[in-house]
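User: quick one, fold this
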Amino acid sequence: MRRSAKRRWADCPPYFLALFLMLSPAWAVQPDEMLADPGLEARARAISRDIRCPVCQGETIDDSNAPIARDLRIIIRERLVAGDSDQAVIDYVVARYGEGVLFNPPAEGANLILWLAGPVLLVAGIGVAMAAARRRVAPEASLSAEEELRLREILKE
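Assistant:
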């Protein structure tokens, strides 16, 4: 009897499934941090997606396991329970940790330089490439009649 080449997850050894589960992402938000009110919890999650972990830099505080990220998640939830608006919570976190914790800082002041630097450098790069293309050395003048005759003689040999 021929065995099917197609394997199912149920056919995999248990250690393979355990390894797969270990490599899957771990969610940093702990059950003890979650709010009982689903509306407030949804607001806290929305705010947390826009806050960068001060330690990890590339992760949101929801994804980070750093102790400071846990502290920030708890602070956000405490402020929401106290009745602060979403913007008031974000302003509180920014006042405490600086604009570096925002994934999308406002395009004003010193941040305006960061927002404009990419497009300006792109345009400058295109300008440099176009200038370099214009300055290319033009091909030399064509051969004279005598040189063409000599070339044909050489090629016939």
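User: anything notable?
Assistant: DSSP finds six helices and no strands in the chain.
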